[in-house]
């Protein structure tokens, strides 16, 4: 019997101006999965720890389960038997890429267990299937960075074209998750289907500016470019105290602050660990002032993506 345990990182999708096309991975939090081979063919979820019983136990409806199933179909190995134990180590519906981390952990783990028949980049479409069952849309801005590590641009979905971008050697991310839940499907439903030419021009300038700022690196350009005139103004209403928490981040030295993925978590970028910690405290205070509890996570950009853990 073979067994493998894998960690996959949480991610910040959109990164202000890059709806559905930008995302980066963080060191903390993340999900863990354990796969164990079995004599009985088929993929089974035998346990999920940390979800309060809310995630589907049926493999075809679970993000990790479906990612592994579609992978095994692709490599023509549906004869394999697999028992999955998923350790959820981040809140559900949080905007931290929870469904993506599970899907990535699953598909990375099975590929490692089988001796890497596919290169990492080829695992992406299977992890995206996990996103499809989780929220009805196979977006790659969470699974891309969780799988590849670092900051990822999805240049095109059809054909899939994903690019990993250099980031400054020191760049810290503060994540604050207020204890409310936002369903990604709902957060997508409220978006407008049409965007004005004026806002498209502003957004394109910021998209280009953020990439140039990250690659140069130029912190001031990063800061000026972390602006979203299309999605944030619509979704901010789903997060009580959004404006106060954002102001707290900026007042305490953040380069920029916006919604992480579809929310309700918010992220802020900064140049050093001390500032990142201070930002977290200030943002949490903004939420606690109105009685909303929250969790804060501070970490650097995760450059590695998923990794095998000792069994
Ligand atoms: N880009 C997606 C969205 C990420 O904002 O809806 C959701 O996790």
UniProtKB/TrEMBL annotation:
Pathway: Amino-acid biosynthesis; L-threonine biosynthesis; L-threonine from L-aspartate: step 4/5. Residues 67-150 form the GHMP kinase N-terminal domain. ATP binds at residues 91-101. Its main location: cytoplasm. It is found in: Cytoplasm. It catalyses: L-homoserine + ATP = O-phospho-L-homoserine + ADP + H(+). Keywords: Amino-acid biosynthesis, ATP-binding, Cytoplasm, Kinase, Nucleotide-binding, Threonine biosynthesis, Transferase. GO terms for molecular function: homoserine kinase activity. Residues 218-288 form the GHMP kinase C-terminal domain. SUPFAM superfamilies: GHMP Kinase, C-terminal domain, Ribosomal protein S5 domain 2-like. Its EC number is 2.7.1.39. It is an enzyme of class 2 (transferase). Belongs to the GHMP kinase family. Homoserine kinase subfamily. Catalyzes the ATP-dependent phosphorylation of L-homoserine to L-homoserine phosphate. This is Homoserine kinase. It comes from Spirosoma flavum.
């Amino acid at each position: 019997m073979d067994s493998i345990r894998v960690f996959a990182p949480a991610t910040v999708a959109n990164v202000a101006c890059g709806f559905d096309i930008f995302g980066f991975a963080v060191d903390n939090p993340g999900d863990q999965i354990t796969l164990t081979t079995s004599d009985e063919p088929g993929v089974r979820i035998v346990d999920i720890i940390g979800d309060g019983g809310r995630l589907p136990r049926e493999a075809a409806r679970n993000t990790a389960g479906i990612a592994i199933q579609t992978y095994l179909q692709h490599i023509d190995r549906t004869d394999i038997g697999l028992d999955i134990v998923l350790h959820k180590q981040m809140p559900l519906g949080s905007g931290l890429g929870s469904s993506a981390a599970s899907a990535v952990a699953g598909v990375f783990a099975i590929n490692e267990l089988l001796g890497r028949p596919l290169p990492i980049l080829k695992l992406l479409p299977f992890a995206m299937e996990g996103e499809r069952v989780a929220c009805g849309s196979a977006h790659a801005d969470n699974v891309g960075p969780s799988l590849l590590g670092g900051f990822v641009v999805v240049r095109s979905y059809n054909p899939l074209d994903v690019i990993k971008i250099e980031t400054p050697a020191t760049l810290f991310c503060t994540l604050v998750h207020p204890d409310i839940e936002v369903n990604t499907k709902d957060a997508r439903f409220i978006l407008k289907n049409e965007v004005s030419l004026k806002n498209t021009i502003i957004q394109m300038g910021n998209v280009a500016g953020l990439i140039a700022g990250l690659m140069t690196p130029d912190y001031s350009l990063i800061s000026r470019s972390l602006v979203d005139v299309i999605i944030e103004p619509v979704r901010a209403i789903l997060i009580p105290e959004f404006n106060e928490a954002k102001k707290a981040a900026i007042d305490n030295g953040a380069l920029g602050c916006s919604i992480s993925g579809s929310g309700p978590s918010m992220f802020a970028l900064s140049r050093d660990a001390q500032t990142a910690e201070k930002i977290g405290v200030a943002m949490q205070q903004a939420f606690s002032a109105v009685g909303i509890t929250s969790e804060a996570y501070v970490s650097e950009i995760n450059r590695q993506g998923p990794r095998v853990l000792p069994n």
